Structures are given as structure tokens and as C-alpha cells.
Amino acid sequence: MSNYSEEVTQKLIEAYIDAPSRSTVEKLAAEHDRSLKSIIGKLSREGVYQRESYKTKSGEKPVTKIELVHEIAEQLQCDPNELLGLDKAPKAALKFLKQSL
Predict the structure, then answer these.
(1) pTM to 2 decimals?
(2) Would you write out the chain's pLDDT as a tens digit for each of its 101 residues?
(3) Domain extent listing, the chain
(4) Fewest CB atoms within 10 Å of the CB: 31, 77, 94, 97?
(5) What SS3 class is residue 49?
(6) What is the rounded distance in angstroms from the CA atom of residue 77 to the CA atom of residue 91?
(7) CA distances, 11 to each of 3, 22, 42, 45, 51 (Å)
(8) CA-to-CA distance for 78 and 53, rounded, in angstroms?
């Protein structure tokens, strides 16, 4: 396929800025008879594409057990190394402990 013209590039950028979502990219790909990767690549090169961030099943930003241990250590005002092995506990228990402090 040929490169994108300036006019098409502007239309892609404007459409994506108005509604930055996967469905917008799919719609643009269909309208311009291009692949999703092509549209995403063009928007990325233009500096406007933003990857959708991963969310857990409950809709939260994912947090690792080690991050939870570090947050607990911060609340307890101690060195995270003093809580060695705590990262082996179930995540639900770590979240409960953090909220209880």
C-alpha cells in the first residue's frame, strides 16, 4: 500500500484524538482499507497513539505482591528487607494488611 497523504494523516489524528480507543482504530482501519497495525503504526509515528492500559478483572490497576510489601513497609516505617518472605503470602492477605494499617 502507498503511504498516507497529509490529508488522510490529519483525519486519522483528529479522529483518534476525539475518541482515543480501540474501536476508533478499528473504524479508521475499515474506512481507509488498512490493517489495524498500519493505523496504529501511523498514529504511533505521529505521537498520538496511546496503548490501552491493562486492568484487573475488578477494574483496578494491577499491583504486584512486592509493590504491596514495599507499601506496607513504608506504612510501618521499616526496611522492606525486614519483611522478607511476606511477598509469599496471598495477595488478598497483603491487601487486607495494607488497608488495616
Answers:
(1) 0.55
(2) 458 999 999 999 999 999 999 999 999 999 999 999 999 999 999 999 988 778 888 878 888 999 999 999 999 999 999 999 999 999 999 999 999 98
(3) 6-45, 65-100
(4) 77
(5) coil
(6) 21
(7) 14, 16, 12, 15, 20
(8) 32
